[in-house]
Amino acid sequence: MAIRLGDIAPNFTAQTTEGEVDFHQWLGDSWGVLFSHPADFTPVCTTELGAVAKIKGEFAKRNVKVLGISVDPLESHHGWIKDINETQACTVNFPIIADPERKVALAYDMIHPNADDKATVRSVFIIGPDKKVKLTITYPASTGRNFLEILRVIDSLQLTAKHKVATPADWTEGQDCIVTPAVSDADAAKLFPKGVRKIKPYLRYTPQPNR
Length: 211
Ligand code: BEZ
Description:
about 210 residues; four-stranded antiparallel sheet; binds benzoic acid
């Protein structure tokens, strides 16, 4: 079944390259990114896992744990990690789920039979500390993901979870935010002492409140 925003992320136990993981327990109070790969020893996936390994510190700074998944078996993952480390000049420093029975892939609807009936698509799930799904994105096998975009979304999710703002198109950390429509002008003036710039009654900007 499709997983929608606000749903509790399905829990599972799985073998990973860093031991058995009970997903919810493993997440603890952290945010999580679960991202799938069509298969081991494939070129785009190899670059993606290398890219994530290199910015693991950026995820950690945001209290986010990352967890990859591919439906190939554990032994294959370990061999592949050697190749990833060699070719991407990195050290894979996060667990990758081995899901040969496709239990996790099916629970997260990562197999789209009209695209490929065996391999997973490139799914991303961002999960909050409340275990609820905050974002889903789906890329085809042919297109590698932009993990700086994932970090950008996490910045927005974490900000908007705490403050009554939304973030505009292409927003990045430090730029002005949008006052959410439910906040009255009077309340906005109190909530955002750095000022509110009103372009239209529904379009009001304020400096990022947590900086
Ligand atoms: C890749 O990761 O390179 C890939 C996987 C499946 C289909 C096409 C590309």
